[in-house]
Structure prediction request, 192 residues.
Amino acid sequence: NAANAQPQIGPGSLAAVNGAGLSAAGAEAALDLSGTPLTVVQRSPFTLAFLIPADFAPGDYILGVTSPLGAAQVPLTVLPFAPAVFEVSGTPVLRLEDDSPVTADHPARRGKLLRIYATGLGQLQGSNTITPLEVEFNGLVAVPSSVALVPELPGVYLVQVTVPSGTAPSASVEMIVRQAGWPSRAVTLPVE
Prediction:
């Protein structure tokens, strides 16, 4: 997936395929999942970022890549759920209530809102996912107050959750987003 380069992909995932010859002057590569065309949201000579539709059925598929320089097919499994927190160089993309980034100097706060940027959360209904999410902070569970797609970032969900007041202050609190028992990769964040 495009959030953290892990192999888990589910409905609503922003994913990426890497390779050579994915673009040429004046021509674009196309992707399909067992014949269903996929939306490519970002292109470069070596990477194509694409969306797995939020209503796509889980199962085993063939990812087809067709470019001006050739074609390839690879097997791809779409899991029922594949929550993933976006990371940049191993650091999770998290924001405080005032939209400033979570850092060691600006940690998340117990009892306060935290914004998590994620992918692979499937379909939305109102201001939440159809299949509920949980966010764990060192094992303490919190239920998000809202989940929404970020309009200018296809495949990116904004999860808003309050950090449990009982979370012990630490420079490295483990956080996991869980959906129907399917966990994201654990990330760490500072909490005061």
Q: What stands out?
A: Residues 2 and 107 are 25 Å apart (CA to CA).
